[in-house]
């Protein structure tokens, strides 16, 4: 594991973008695992700026998003499909056909989960997975107590996650109750993971990730077992640990 602590969310985002751009340049047909949420937005902005200024190309890049809400159409502004277009895909030269997001409007959810999981495998797996983290330590939409062996599956969102994500919706009732998410095993099979953590609200989750017992109650703790994990945190996310309290080499 390597860990960087940056002064601000902006610095965290710059560092993350720098790592992603290096990897894309090293392997122009890389398969990226992408995350939504407020945390990676500025990282995506830096990727766009770099694409415009330095012409880093995504022509041969493939992407798989972590998750999607069930029952929200692609056109809905709260779908993760819309999110990715709004914050990244519309502004870089990635091919629409190379981008993958679970279909939350499927009539056969089980079949969609199997299709997505198999399609990741058929494409040779994920090379670099970008991850955020939920306040309760969830990754993707893998809520506490999800099996570490899980693959792409349907989840019932916890009340706390629905409340946390309700800021994007008109009301809590509008927040979907289910989502399709890559499983924890799916995420762990990525060759490299880049985890972004920003803000005081995530400080406890970061503390658990680094020092808590590895347990399904806090999904992110499993990341400690990943052979190629990079964590980039901002100082606000370090309030529980203390600025130099990481305790890692
Ligand atoms: C959602 C997403 C996660 C994300 C989390 C944190 O639940 N499914 O992938 O990590 O939100 O979001 P934010 O970055 O907005 O705090």
From TrEMBL:
What reaction does this catalyse? Answer: alpha-D-glucosamine 6-phosphate + H2O = beta-D-fructose 6-phosphate + NH4(+)
Tell whether Hydrolase is among the UniProt keywords: yes
- Which residues does the UniProt record annotate as the domain Glucosamine/galactosamine-6-phosphate isomerase? 12-226
A biological process from GO: N-acetylglucosamine catabolic process
Instruction: Alphabetically list the UniProt keywords.
Output: Carbohydrate metabolism, Hydrolase
Question: Which is one Gene Ontology cellular component term of this protein?
Answer: cytoplasm
| A Pfam family this chain is assigned to | Glucosamine_iso
Lineage runs: Bacteria, Bacillati, Bacillota, Bacilli, Bacillales
**Annotated protein name in UniProt:** Glucosamine-6-phosphate deaminase
**Active-site feature positions:** 67 (proton acceptor), 136 (for ring-opening step), 138 (proton acceptor), 143 (for ring-opening step)
Under the heading InterPro entries, the entry gives: Glc/Gal-6P_isomerase (IPR006148), Glucosamine6P_isomerase (IPR004547), Glucosamine6P_isomerase_CS (IPR018321), NagB/RpiA_transferase-like (IPR037171)
Metabolic or biological pathway, per its Swiss-Prot or TrEMBL entry: Amino-sugar metabolism; N-acetylneuraminate degradation; D-fructose 6-phosphate from N-acetylneuraminate: step 5/5
Purpose of the protein: Catalyzes the reversible isomerization-deamination of glucosamine 6-phosphate (GlcN6P) to form fructose 6-phosphate (Fru6P) and ammonium ion.
| Gene3D superfamilies for the chain | 3.40.50.1360
Q: Which family does it belong to?
A: Belongs to the glucosamine/galactosamine-6-phosphate isomerase family. NagB subfamily.
Q: Which SUPFAM superfamilies match?
A: NagB/RpiA/CoA transferase-like (SSF100950)
Keyword field contains Electron transport: no
Q: What is its EC number?
A: 3.5.99.6
Task: Output one GO MF annotation.
Answer: identical protein binding
Taxonomic superkingdom: Bacteria
